[in-house]
Amino acid sequence: MDEVKDQDQLEHYLQAYQLKSIFNEQILMHVSLAHFKQGESICTQGEASQYLYILVKGKIKVYTTSAEGKALILSFKTPLEVIGDIEYLRGIDFINTVEAVSPVSMITVHHRWLRKFGQDYAPLLNFLLDIITRKFCVKSNSMSFNLMYPVEVRLASYLLSISSDESGYLFNGQLGTVSLSDAANLIGTSYRHLNRIIQQFCADGLVERSKGGILIKNREGLRALAGRSIYE
Q1: How far apart are CA 11 and CA 62, in angstroms?
Q2: Is there a cis peptide before residue 80, judged by omega within 30 degrees of 0?
Q3: How big is the chain by its Cα radius of gyration, in Å?
Q4: What is the pLDDT of residues 21-74, one digit of tens each?
Q5: Where residue 174 falls among pLDDT bands split at 50, 70, 90?
Q6: Residue 219 — φ and ψ, nearest 5°?
Q7: What CATH class is the domain 149-226?
Q8: DSSP per residue over 172-216, as a string?
Q9: What is the CATH number of domain 2-144?
Q10: Handedness of CA 152, 157, 160, 161 (dihedral sign)
């Protein structure tokens, strides 16, 4: 994490997302802007939660790790999103691991300032309530999506969620064996069946598979198939 000293840039994000209204003057004095590199961990499952993070630029992935060491991707997030809200309100360690899958900018504020100046500040509490209830709605929709739609639709949505709009390549350059396992777990299918669907997408001209990874060839075709990106 690199803390940014550019006050103008911080002010830009506060204004762009109308965040000044959720913080009082005392909290605003302790708000900072931080940059994370692609692949950098923002928080780790089980570690002490100290900061509230507000995503204002880039894309992140949220995943959990089992006691056996197996990772399961839960979702991908784009602005505006909050990380550490439940942890702050409940006073617990981070529930999941969050990683930057593109260069990311986040507004950060330490818990001690939120507790000191924001415990009874209604605009902040209403903002957190709105964010948390929205997360529950997204999770519910995602579960329904996995039950109601075929694997082809789910995979198209997944590929759109993890791909870079600028280049069409998947973040990290490739969708390897581990990533394919994660994808199969997230969308609720087997690794073998997922491979068959990818082969079909290649035959249909939607994606191209090579040694370097998977390239999206027809983004509009995937969007038409997916209908919406449920994993964001």
Answers
A1: 27
A2: yes
A3: 19
A4: 999 999 999 999 999 998 899 999 999 999 999 999 998 988 888 777 777 777
A5: very low
A6: -65, -40
A7: mainly alpha
A8: TS---HHHHHHHHHHHT--HHHHHHHHHHHHHTTSEEEETTEEEE
A9: 2.60.120.10
A10: negative
Place of tokens 């981070």: 94
Alpha carbons 112 and 27: distance in angstroms, whole number: 10
pLDDT (tens digit, 9 = 90+) per residue, 92-143? 999 999 999 889 999 999 999 999 999 999 999 999 999 999 888 877 766 6
Structure token digits, residue 83: 């990380």
87 and 47 in contact (C-beta within 8 Å)? no
Domain ranges in the chain are 2-144, 149-226
Distance CA 143, CA 167 (A): 30
Only one residue has tokens 């990290």, namely: 172
Beta strands in 46-164 (DSSP E): 51-57, 60-65, 71-77, 81-83, 97-100, 104-110
pTM above 0.85, yes or no: no
Cα 86–122–23 angle (5° rounding)? 80
